[in-house]
Design a protein that fits this description.
Length: about 350
């Protein structure tokens, strides 16, 4: 199965889950009636570009905020300097983000994953996303800013889907994210379930929590809370002294087998593994093959774990980036990288990536 067919099947599975979740909900049905025709149209747009020699991925990752209200251990954004606590004057404006979202829709990109920092610290960008009706925005959040106004915003705009970052139960999550964080996440989940709003969970998998978070009972509890999407993300050792948390070869086999079984037993949920699912898609999806990453200041990076940008969306278009020799060279590096550890092909090839990186003013 080629990459395009595989990813289109994944989109179809996601839409099936959304349809099942929202079929009895008035707001949800209105959302589906708008987005489903566009998703089909977006596939046709990407296929048209493919025939003309330009590959358009169905996903982007956009880190819209360079600030965060938490200090989670092992945070790759803080470790790379992309995230801090002070206001960043170089962050893209909400107007520029809105233009980027519009270009993505025109190119047939129907999914943009919003991250940070903490994305809800950029309420102006979240509102711009909500107004971009032809795109679905999973928002990866720590879950600590889900006040009444934010919940109402999510209720009105079903194309914005919160995805809560957790590490397991309260012990595991609070150990990394701070005391009381898990309780706030669970409260947000409960209130979204009461409103009938679809949400997901993103689980960073380490050697310490792999056997906890892959237990069917743990995923079943999340499903009972109303969770419809699960992202398993392999830990990348971006912080010095955390290499021991990376998954071993045996751990990766355990994760692959567990995720496969969970997909079978809980087929009313979308369960994804990154980058584990890349194996079925022929390798690394970064650098425009399956997605690329836009950082808070507009830098076009191959992926969040390879934070090197030669192009910037302040002056370049998405199409410029996707057609660039730079991204083509990055895809070649990933293609020939061989076996890697730590959840990211390009992370271990960063010297080669950095050698290509000559910023364009």
């Amino acid at each position: 199965m080629n990459l395009t067919t595989f990813m289109n099947q994944g989109i179809k599975n996601l839409l099936t889950t959304m349809n099942r979740y929202y079929i009895k909900d008035r707001e949800g049905r209105a959302f589906l009636s708008h987005i489903l025709p566009y998703i089909q149209k977006s596939t046709d747009i990407r296929n048209s570009y493919e025939k003309r020699g330009t590959h358009i991925p169905p996903f982007l990752i956009a880190s819209i905020a360079s600030q965060c209200n938490l200090h989670c251990s092992g945070c790759y954004a803080r470790a790379s300097g992309a995230c801090g606590s002070d206001p960043a004057k170089s962050d893209l404006s909400a107007a520029r983000w809105k233009a980027i979202f519009a270009e993505a829709a025109q190119l047939g990109i129907p999914f943009i994953l919003l991250a940070g920092g903490e994305p809800f610290m950029r309420r102006d960008v979240i509102e711009a996303a909500a107004q971009s009706r032809d795109v679905v925005f999973p928002v990866f959040t720590n879950g600590t800013m889900m006040d009444d106004d934010t919940l109402a915003l999510l209720d009105r705009n079903r194309n914005v889907i919160p995805v809560f970052s957790i590490e397991g139960a309260a012990v595991e999550t609070d150990r990394r994210r701070g005391e009381g964080t898990c309780a706030m996440v669970h409260e947000a989940m409960n209130r979204l379930r009461e409103r009938g709003v679809l949400f997901g969970a993103s689980i960073t998998v380490t050697k310490e929590n792999i056997h906890i978070v892959t237990e069917p009972s743990f995923i079943f509890e999340l499903r009972n809370r109303g969770c419809g999407l699960i992202f398993f993300v392999e830990y990348v050792p971006v912080s010095e002294g955390t290499e021991q948390l990376s998954l071993s070869h045996d751990d990766l086999n355990t994760l692959t087998d567990s995720v496969s079984e969970l997909k079978k037993s809980m087929d009313d949920m979308i369960i994804l593994s990154f980058p584990g699912d890349e194996a079925a898609m022929g390798g690394c999806l970064a650098s425009g093959r399956g997605f690329f990453h836009i950082n808070a200041s507009g830098g076009a990076e191959p992926c969040p774990f390879s934070p090197y940008a030669k192009y910037n969306l302040k002056t370049s278009s998405i199409l410029d980036v996707l057609k660039s020799d730079y991204f083509a060279q990055l895809r070649e590096i990933a293609k020939h990288a061989g076996v890697h550890t730590g959840g990211c092909t390009l992370f271990e090839q960063r010297d080669k990536v950095l050698a290509l990186n000559q910023p364009i003013d």
